[in-house]
Design a protein that fits this description.
This protein folds into three domains: 79 residues, Arc Repressor Mutant, subunit A, CATH 1.10.10; 97 residues, 3-Layer(aba) Sandwich (D-Maltodextrin-Binding Protein, domain 2); 99 residues, Periplasmic binding protein-like II (D-Maltodextrin-Binding Protein, domain 2, 3-Layer(aba) Sandwich). The protein is 37% helix and 24% strand. The protein has nine helices and twelve strands.
Length: 294
Amino acid sequence: MLETRLLEYFLVLSHEKNISHAAKSLYISQSTLSKQMMELEEKIGKQLFIRGKRKITLTQEGEFLQKRAQEILELIKSTEISLSCKGSELTGQISIGCGETIVMDMIANWMEELHQQHPNILLRTYSGNADAVLERLDKGIDDMGLLLGPVRQDKYEYLNLYKKDIYGLLIPANCELAKQNYINIDQLKSLPIILSDQIYVGHQNVDWFDSADSLMNIVGTYNLIYNATFMVEHGIGYALCLENLVNTEGRNLTFRKIVPELSVDLYIVTKKYQTFSPAAQTFMSLMKKKIYSK
């Protein structure tokens, strides 16, 4: 079994890429660190480093272990924090993976209420697309995810927030389209569209079109919307995105809704049969109370 100490040493060396710098950061001798890394390679049965005169480079196996070691150590730390309750005082942490949505404002409001009741709980958020959030859920890094639906897989539980996000086009404020009050859905087929990766690769199921290809003129994609705003300002295309995500004030940007309305529902997603920490369970209970009391 791998010791966490070896993984910690390995991560420092993989980032420093220099044995002397890494040993100095760890407050150990170079010979001790070299011996520990040789022991790690022996336990794994794979070469993790290519040792140069001045620089150490990770092998393919080393790059794989680097990613996994970060996840393992983060999960251990999260578990330790969650179990560190003192007496009746609720402590620990809650980690939430979040897709881009204005509904995060409502979640933050509930987090504020939780924080007032239990100020020693650490609240952690991770922003990413659905694939990244679900991967973190699968590995136990995040307790729950806030995602746009439908994301239907049997291995997850879905808590419907009964909120929706509305799609539209982010366009230059000085273009001809900006003279319209809205964009007709049929216009999308003839416009240069910048599309989210989730829709483009089919990971977010939408029934507005037969497929993303039916938009015909997809000129670009984006992961998170911020960088795509500059593509829009430079006239590369129009970004199909959610309302209220982009602050258009002071920029050559404006947003137009699409008719008929294109919208998606919002869900809190968790793994099935998941065992929550006391802190995460308290927050789940608070959210359900807020949702079902309406």
